[in-house]
Write a structure and sequence with these properties.
Number of helices: 5
Strand order of the largest sheet: 3-2-1-4-5
Helix content: 40-55%
Bound molecules: adenosine-5'-triphosphate, magnesium ion
Largest sheet: 5 strands, parallel
Shape: globular
CATH superfamily: HUPs
Number of domains: 1
Structural class: alpha/beta
Order of helices and strands: EHEHHEHEHE
CATH topology: Rossmann fold
């Protein structure tokens, strides 16, 4: 039933918890897991605005920041890939730059995903919030089933 799983991660504690459920879903007939991390456009924008204020060259700074974000994410994605492989699950990693919720929804459609496994919260993990803004939008707009793992 859940042959193709999309597991979007921001590498937060809550999304790490969600990975444990992804592994368990092997028993439900999972054939492949797509592990997705989106380098958040807005994070780059915010950092660049601060840098512009400090009078630094924005272009150089942005390029360096994106490279750092990319290599740090690649390392973490590879570790997850290995973790899934040793659990006997075939994984495929994706690293994309954009708006997280939009990319999650787009990949769910283009890759014909049967289930999205997402954390209720992520890096911000604000105590008063029932859901993070990414998970809230994914749940609201997705046409595919979504499994939300609570923090
Ligand atoms: N950049 C991202 N790439 C891939 N998945 C993400 C990304 N950001 C969030 N997610 C997914 O969405 C889940 C919920 O994170 P979300 O960002 O909504 O919560 P938050 O960080 O606590 O709140 P907010 O971002 O609204 O301040 C995460 O556990 C993860 O599964
Ligand atoms: Mg977040």
């Amino acid at each position: 039933m859940f042959t193709r799983i999309l597991y979007p991660t921001d590498f937060s504690d809550c999304s790490k918890k969600a990975l444990e459920y992804v592994k368990e879903l092997k028993e439900a007939g999972t054939m492949e897991v797509i592990v997705l991390h989106v380098i958040d456009e807005r994070e780059i924008e915010t950092a660049s605005t601060t840098i512009a204020w400090l009078g630094e060259t924005v272009e150089e700074y942005e390029e360096q920041l994106i490279n750092e974000m990319r290599s740090s994410a690649e390392e973490k994605l590879n570790a997850i890939n290995e973790e899934l492989a040793s659990a006997g699950i075939k994984a495929n990693v994706r690293l994309i730059r954009g708006m997280p919720f939009k990319e999650i929804l787009r990949i769910a459609e283009t890759e014909d995903i049967s289930l999205i496994v997402i954390g209720s919260h992520g890096k911000s993990n604000v105590e008063e919030m029932l859901l993070g803004s990414v998970s809230e939008k994914v749940i609201r707009k997705s046409e595919r089933p979504v499994l939300v793992v609570k923090r």
